[in-house]
Write a sequence for this structure.
């Protein structure tokens, strides 16, 4: 329905603009290393972290849609199914592990930028502006009449 599309589009655009303005105006409070007064919470045990990660990914609709849409293209009907699934599963786990470790390494390398108040303020302004621009651009999206 054209009306439903317009309503969802407008609400989404206004929400993105609101989030962008909130991000732009957010206060930056950096705590100096060693000056924390809040006690650090111990990390959960490995088993709980693995279970949480598994449940998060197993219930992620984007992941499920990706698996259903993309993986069947790599399955041959003329070969045994289990070895093919095992190879695809091992490949995806390996690639995902490498990518996530890359993100963690990049975050560790950029940690100093997250502790500098001026840098955090610049980040907030940049990403706030991006959200406002994307929200404003949504107003120009037209529905395809197919």
């Amino acid at each position: 329905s054209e009306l439903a599309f317009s309503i969802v589009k407008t609400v989404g655009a206004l929400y993105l603009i609101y989030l962008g303005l909130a991000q732009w105006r957010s206060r930056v409070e950096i705590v100096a290393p060693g000056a924390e007064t809040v006690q650090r919470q111990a990390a959960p045990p490995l088993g709980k972290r693995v279970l949480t990660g598994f449940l998060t990914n197993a219930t992620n609709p984007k992941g499920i849609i990706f698996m259903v849409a993309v993986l069947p293209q790599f399955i041959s009907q003329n070969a045994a199914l289990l070895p093919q699934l095992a190879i695809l599963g091992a490949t995806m786990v390996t690639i995902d592990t490498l990518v996530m470790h890359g993100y963690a390494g990049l975050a560790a390398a950029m940690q100093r930028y997250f502790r500098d108040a001026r840098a955090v303020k610049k980040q907030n302004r940049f990403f706030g502006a991006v959200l406002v621009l994307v929200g404003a651009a949504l107003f120009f999206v037209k529905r395809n009449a197919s």
About this structure: The chain has five helices and no strands. The helical segments are 2-25, 46-58, 61-70, 81-109, 117-138. The chain has a mean pLDDT of 84. The radius of gyration is 22 Å.
